[in-house]
Every structure is written in C-alpha cells, then in structure tokens.
Design brief:
- The protein starts with 21 loop residues before the first strand and ends in a 5-residue tail after the last strand.
- By secondary structure, it is an alpha/beta fold.
- The protein contains ten helices and 13 strands.
- It has a single domain, classed as 3-Layer(bba) Sandwich (Glucose Oxidase, domain 1).
- The strands form three sheets. It has a nine-stranded mixed beta sheet, with helices on one face.
Amino acid sequence: MAYMPLDKSKLYLDRKTMTKIYDLSHPWGIDTPLWPFPGPRQDLVFPRGQYLGRFHKRTCTYTGTLHAGTHMDAPNHVLHEEEVDRERNGYTLSEIPLEYCIGTGVILDMRHLAVEFEAKWNAAGGDPAKFGDIWVELKPADFEKAAAKDGLEIREGDWVVVNTGFQHYWRKNNDKYFNYYPGMGPEVAKWLIHEKKIKGISGTWGATDGPLWHMPLKEQMPWLDTAYTLATGKNAALEYPDYEPCHRLFMQHGVITVENAGGDIDDCTGRRMIIAAFPFRCEAADGGFVRLVAWEEGSF
C-alpha cells in the first residue's frame, strides 16, 4: 500500500514524559550562512532524485561544504598529520574518539557582550571609522567571571559552551555575526587546554578563533581588515600575527571544537549539563555537521 492513512489514536510516544533535550544547533539547508571568504563560494545544494508524487518516496543528494551551520572540525582541517598524535586523538572526522564527544560541562552566560556590541554599533551609526576597538577577544577572566556569576566551575574534562548572544544575528545580520563576534585567541586557548584541561569547546561564534585571527587578514577578509584599520588605526597583521591559532592548539591537544552553537541555548545558559556532539563517520571529512545537545545531569 503506497498511501498510508494516519490514525492518531494509535500513536503512543509522548515527549512530555521524556527527558528534555536542549538542541544547541542551528538548522541548515537553503541559504545557510557561510564563512565570508573572498570570491564566490559553492552554495549548499540539495537536488532531488526521487519525488513523492511519482515514487512515493523522496531522495536528494547534497553538494557543499562540511563547514557550515553547527559543525565540528577535525584535526586534518588545519594540521598536518605529523603535528597530531593520530592514534591518541584521531585525524579525520571518522577517527575522533567518541569518548571526547560527550561529557559534563557548563554553558556560560556572556550575552552582555552582544548588548554592549549593539550599543557601540548604534552609537557609531555603523560607521567603522567611529567604532573604536569594537572587537572583543575573550580572556581567562571572562570565563571565570561568567562561571562565577552563576555559581559554576570549569572542571577538568568539562565541555565549555559560551553563549555570547551573537546567535541572534544568525541569518538576520550575517555581517555582524561573522565579522564582529567575541572570540578566542591563543592566550585563552592555552589556558583552557593546559590549566582547565577541558574536553570540548563551543560557542555562539562564527569560528573557534576570533574574526581578527585570520592572518593575513588583508587577503583572507579584506573588508574586515579595512574596517579594523579605520576603527583603530592599527595593522591587523601586526596585532593578530597568526592564522587560526586556536583551531590548531585545541585540535593538537584533542579538544573537540564545535562552531556556530545556537538553537535552544538561551533556555539552558548558566547551568551545568551533560553536553554531546557526535560526528558522522566519514573517512574523507575534515569536519561535519553535528547536533550539539545538552540535558540535565542524572536525568536518564
């Protein structure tokens, strides 16, 4: 029987009786925001092969980057194999140890950063020449302050998820989202790795590194280089003299990185949760989409 009428009286699963799962990921599909590299980019394309009207089933294929939406990076995205302990931490997406992909963690509240950014943006009328240093590089003190505010502690082996508030720009103002989000630099990456000894890091940001850590910025993001010079009078190549150092530091040490968190994050911010994000098992992938999720400890 190709057509199957629905009898709702025979449905028995009830989500209201189940543990609440918070989805900290963005949906992805048509018009998903992409990292703004110079020049044209391959959009995400989903051509259909079979149609319900003819075949009574739908199939489609996917063509596009694996680094879009809420996704996990693999070490082979930014590191040569000789820079990685492959046996210990994996190299391709399929090799990432699953034990690293789930654990206890904290969701830190830094939403004041989006409020402060918007106030500065509006005061400048969106004119880079009037911004001043509008970019925020997160420091260890920012993490400690956010944790203490809600009575939290970053423990060894934790996942850390940061809510900057910038997820509310996603698909509404991608210029603000990708070019001005509060992000990390090597100072805080080394602190999280060597002093806090975390397992995973994610945040409501466009990349694991802050937007200015894409040296040479003049080539990688020339519009941002111009805006930074107009705003500060400084040379980004001198102030941020490395390309994605946090990516390489975290992944060399086995720390899982997930970019573009969002979804239900406001509903569970400021809490200690179980956090998980499992990659699909593709040998060719240097990254891939994940469902970043959280739930209350001890609820299963």
